[in-house]
Amino acid sequence: MTELAAGRVLGADGWYDPAEQRLRGSRCGTCGTRSFPTRAFCWRCSNTMLPELLPRSGTVVARSTVRVSAPGFPDRYDVGVVELAPGLRVLARFEDEAPTHGERVSVRTGHVRHEDSGVVLGPVFAHDPGAALLPATHHEDAALPQPEARISRGGQLGVTVAGVATTAFGRPDRAAEELAAEAALAAVADAGLRHEDVDALVVGSAFSTAALGQRMLRHVPWGGRRIVNVENACASGTSALAEAVALVRAGLADVVVAVGADVPVRSGGGLIPLDQEDPVAGIGVTLPSLYALVGDLYTSRYGVGSEAFASVVVHSRDNAFRNPDAYRRTPVTREEVLGSRAIADPLTLFQCAPNADGAAAVVVVADHVVRRSEHRPVEIAALALTSGFAKDRFTGASVVERVSRAVYAQAGVDPSEIGVVELHDAFAPAALTNLEYLGLADPGTAGTRLMAGEFGISGGGPSLNPSGGLLSRGHPPGATGLAQVSELVRQLRGEAGERQVDDPGVALLHTMGGTVLELETNACTIGLLRRRP
After folding, report:
1. DSSP H helical segments within 355-502, as ranges?
2. E strand spans, 43-178
3. Is there a contact between 254 and 369 (Cβ–Cβ < 8 Å)?
4. By C-alpha distance, which of 66, 74, 86 is closest to 347?
5. DSSP for 245-290?
6. Is the dihedral of CA 107, 111, 114, 119 positive or negative?
7. Cα–Cα distance list, 275 to 58, 70, 110, 282, 522 (Å)
8. What pLDDT is attached to residue 142?
9. Which residues, 6 or more positions from 161, have their beta carbon under 8 angstroms from its beta carbon?
């Protein structure tokens, strides 16, 4: 190893021991589960964890080259997933070019980035040719506790969506409160309600400044009411919806407007900013590279490559072409997708959801208000909002699997009844993995089925993202989830125009939010909507 310049060591006060050159983690004294970084309680059994130094060496199970980096990081560097022990995988920065899958690596102190005060050092993994290979383990011991999702109690929700609206997503160069007000007023009008009927607003935003709901009062007539602001990363909009549903269901309000808005383009665009002291983002794992690793692992398991990921974008653009509110509406070919700018191997620019400014709103109402609507009523049969467990997303079952099982059970719905799904395709591989986690495709088959023409607007499985999804509709984080709901409601009403699905059946909503990369996710929202009799 070359001599290192003096600099502060990232994580030295918590999750990395530079003297031992080992990561600090925890081990459960009850079930033996290991975790990184150090945690107080076990994600499996909730018992106390004890601190320990983790194994110094492990096996590469996924890898990616970052080609668009955050300020202070090199223009190009490699990251990956390293299995240090069965059931323990960590996101890693590599010292040089990433070793291939299955090769053994060991951690040491190396250069990570620069900041104003100088060099930042931290844990980096390097090829360890003298060590025997450690086989990767894809399945954990079935005897260990497998916690399930905890969602709302009380059976089916039966809350009605009376009105929906979205602004056009893109570059409107307008403030978030203006866009939010436009969407909220339009949703109330769509519901056939008067301004004075509104009891409360719940406003979701991931990155707009504080008190977005109160700043809307310049543009809406709803002062003197309950206004609650919600931040839950890219699930902020559907988190606002969950709170609106709770208010109606509890009898605290009859008419609640859930609003979501963000203006990342107006705010400068680029990569979503992450905590640079975080043990994952701090070493250089960006959101695109995180999903690139998801894609790399999916490819290594199932032999499904870049063409399948590119086909997700082709499908998305074809749908967005029919959506006048979508941002990226120009159809593309697989070759154009693969030829766009490299972001984090294997992902290219077109395989990453574009920043977009916009807003969306959904009005939920109590049963006695439903009769005022001109539209065929649509009910939210089930809606779950949960955080992820305090574990990485590469170990154990997906949070999407756990939550979707609970939601299907709550509504008494089988996945085969789903006719249309709006899922969180922030990056192309996520469309395939989430179709499978949601039970809409068998493991490893979603890419092949999509390339064969399934998941379209006319038959061949549930219609995938008829709005164009995040990849083409665009992604204002606070608005995304409510735009998904708006599309599903229009599909169920039969008002989706050229993109109308022949038989929407039961509609499925899926939104994710993740900016704390050491967790499997910040938030996961899954819901089921259907026509009321």
Report:
1. 367-370, 399-411, 428-437, 446-451, 469-473, 477-493
2. 49-53, 57-66, 77-85, 88-93, 104-115, 118-127, 159-166
3. yes
4. 66
5. HHHHHTTS-SEEEEEEEE-TTTTT-SSPP--TTSTTGGGT--HHHH
6. positive
7. 26, 11, 20, 7, 14
8. 52
9. 362, 363, 364, 377, 378, 379, 380, 485, 489, 529
Beta carbons within 8 Å of 17's beta carbon, 6+ residues apart: 23, 24, 53
Q: In whole angstroms, what is the distance from residue 442 CA to residue 435 CA?
A: 9
pLDDT > 90 fraction of the chain, expressed in percent and rounded: 82
Query: What is the H or E stretch that residue 336 is in?
Result: helix 334-339
C-alpha to C-alpha distance for 198 and 221, rounded to whole angstroms: 10
Query: How far apart (Å, rounded) are the C-alpha atoms in residues 292 and 297?
Result: 9
CA distance 166 to 183: 5
Given the structure tokens 């930042």, which residue do they identify?
A: 120
**Per-residue pLDDT reduced to its tens digit, 487-511:** 999 999 999 999 999 989 999 999 9
pLDDT for 139:
41
Rounded Cα distance between 246 and 179, Å, is 25
Q: Which two tokens stand for residue 382?
A: 């089930």
Q: What is the mean pLDDT of residues 454-465?
A: 90
**Regarding beta strands 22-28 and 34-35, do their DSSP bridges make them parallel or antiparallel, or are they unpaired?**
antiparallel
Written as one string, the DSSP assignment of 120-136 is EEEEEEEE-TTSPP---
**Positions marked active-site:** 234, 475
Q: And the tokens for 488?
A: 């599903």
